Amino acid sequence: MVDKFSKLNSIGNNAALSEQSESDALITKKKLVSNLPVKAEERFNALKKAGKVSGSFNAYIVQATLNNLDSDENK
Amino acid sequence: MIIVLAHDKGGVGKTTTALNLAEILKPDIIIDQDTHNNLVILNQLRDEKDQLNVLSNLNKSELINALSKSAQGQLILVDCGGFDSELNRIAIAASDMTIVPANDDINEVVGLKRFNKTLEQISNDMGEKITGHVMFTRVHPSRKKFTDVESFINNSDNLARLQTVIPTRKWHAMAALDGYGVTNHKKTKYSDAAREVTALATEIKTRLNIK
Q1: Least Cα separation, residue B127 to chain A (angstroms)
Q2: Which residues on chain B are in Cβ contact (under 8 Å) with A9?
């Protein structure tokens, strides 16, 4: 028989909201990216000038990394 | 034993009821799951000797760990936030009794209908029926019959009704100003509100066989 409290781990997946722990939300660190192609920043600046993206290049890199991680995790 | 105050609608009286029940049931642990942390703040208003053991901002594993202490005989009272979330569902799933404060307003029926669906989903996930015990509160003191809402409850698979009614009374706000429930504040402990809250606690104790 499955223990009631072990079962609780699988409850709530279909709730409208999911609580985000503060640690997940706030923990960040500085990371120096070496050998970033100059062309990449130029292409970003061109997109920004054309109004196709917004925000900083730093935020763009972070978002691209997260997107790539999501994609690889779901393979 | 785990008693949970829940409704995915805000402002129905979950925190006020939790505070009032805490005075009588004297739970070993109170878990405040509302993002406003109202119980935590109310506890700060109380005298040092009357401090309640309130836990808040628990993550999933901390919540399950705290709830599991009920297996060692601890009484746990959970005040859920007024929204449908993963942790609120976990508390409901673990509960021995889920109390759903509501009044007789038509908007309440809409809210209860949605909450009945939520309880149905939790029941399916747990593989056992979870019932929300609707408790009429914040109703006009002259209101004694709730025929329309009651009829809806009777036709809902995952809802039942508690018989005690806690009407709107000025004493609840007076006691809460100092962080107390109505039965434990010198200005309100002999009031109608205190008698009504005592009746609610007695009904809950009888249903759960708590001494």
Answers
A1: 10
A2: 60, 64
Contacts of A15 in chain B (CB under 8 A): 84-86, 88-89, 118
pLDDT at A1 over 50: no
- CA nearest A11 in B: which residue? B90
Q: Which chain A residue is nearest to residue B125, measuring alpha carbons?
A: A11
DSSP annotation of A14: T
Question: Which residues lie closer than 8 Å to B40 by C-beta, 6 or more apart?
Answer: B32, B54, B56
DSSP code, position A20:
P
Q: Which residues of B touch A22 (CB under 8 A)?
A: 57
Say how far apart CA B119 and CA B126 lie, in whole Å: 10
So what's the ipTM on this one?
0.76
> How do beta strands B2-5 and B54-56 pair?
unpaired
Which whole-number Å values give the CA distances from B152 to A30, B149, B171, in the listed order?
Answer: 56, 5, 30
Report pTM. 0.81
Verify whether the Cβ–Cβ distance B64 to A12 is below 8 Å.
Answer: no
Partner-chain contact A16 B57, CB within 8 Å: no
Return phi, psi of residue A26, to 5°: -105, -20
Q: Which of chain B's residues have a Cβ under 8 Å away from the Cβ of A16?
A: 8, 83-85
Q: How far apart are CA A1 and CA B93, in angstroms?
A: 17
User: Residue B67 — very low, low, confident or very high, per pLDDT cuts 50/70/90?
Assistant: very high
**pLDDT for B168 beyond 90:** yes
Q: What's the rounded Cα separation, in Å, for the pair B184 and B23?
A: 7
A17 and B93 within 8 Å at the Cβ level: the answer is no
Q: Is the pLDDT of residue B211 over 90?
A: no
Taking only the tens place, the pLDDT of each residue in A17-58 is 988 766 555 567 778 888 999 999 999 999 999 999 888 898
